[in-house]
Amino acid sequence: MQVQSFFEPSASISSPAPDPRAQTMSIATTAFSADVLNIDAAAVSAGIEGKIREIVLHRLNRKGVVIAISGGIDSSVVAALCFRALGTARVLGLMLPEADSSPDSLHFANLLARSLGLRTHVEDIAGILNAAGCYQRRDDAIRKVIPEYTAAYKCKIVLPDQVNSSAYPIFSVIVESPLGERTKARLTLDSYLGVVAATNFKQRTRKMMEYYYADLFNYAVAGTPNRLEFDQGFFVKNGDGAADLKPIAHLYKTQVYQLAAYFGIPEEIQKRPPTTDTYPLDQSQEEFYFPLPYERMDLCLYAKNHGLQPEEVAPLIELTTEQVARVYRVIDATRNATRYLHRGPVLCQEVPEVSDDVV
Prior knowledge:
Distance between the termini: 22 Å
Helix content: 40-55%
Number of domains: 1
CATH architecture: 3-Layer(aba) Sandwich
Strand order of the largest sheet: 3-2-1-7
Order of helices and strands: HHEHEHEHHEEEHEHHHHHHH
Structural class: alpha/beta
Number of helices: 14
Radius of gyration: 21 Å
């Protein structure tokens, strides 16, 4: 997954500009609750399924969809939506493990495929990544701050606490020796960029394989970001951010879980903690990217999107008003830092004969 450079001025967590919606809305504190994210799962599913059929078969003129299934909740729900919309003969699930992938990912992806009756194919991309220098480049970057680091070590990168501190957020690397000893070091700008640039090979290689199979079968590629990830740029440009359609990009992750329950996605997958599955050490999404677990992050994002003030949100998610205000500032800073990821190629001059078909 893409991580924005917190070393760059564009990511500075400064006070956000006043939201004009906040001046026109009058919402009582008691009106805000977790219920705001409740959906009619049957109706939402039916609507998305109809859009998938219309987009894939008519707008894109493709015969079906390819989807990378990781055993996570988002790819599981997108796979289920595509299966319901198009039928098993028009959906191909790809499993794309690599050297740092958790064995659980393949297990849960297979569990999903069996539950839906999906056609699947496994492509181990470790050989491609190794040939491209992904692991070596990452290790070289880590050695700039931890010289004793070797390929026998495990690693992950983490952010400091963004809720309880207003300090400038800079990534650190945690490494674990073959003896189980852990060391943590603050990343320099060069080492941070080196680690991110190298690990982004993983998402771009996966997408390359997805489009290979899409070309092979005249299929479209279905992306899997939920609203929180899409809004906050939690993806790699031309990696997992690339797709022909993104069926759940408008749904908060909390709502994705509601669809999973409605579809009867295997309980093991529903209970699996969200993970990046990018580094050899286990890594939660909140230590890597988001300041809060998704349940509270969703509510903060919804509240900010609807002009609610921090003091209206704080009691529900058991934070102080200042802590919620910090989360709001993180949301603004992250949107600003990752805006580039959402942009397509910029033309120096418009070509009027070619129009964009934005899904």
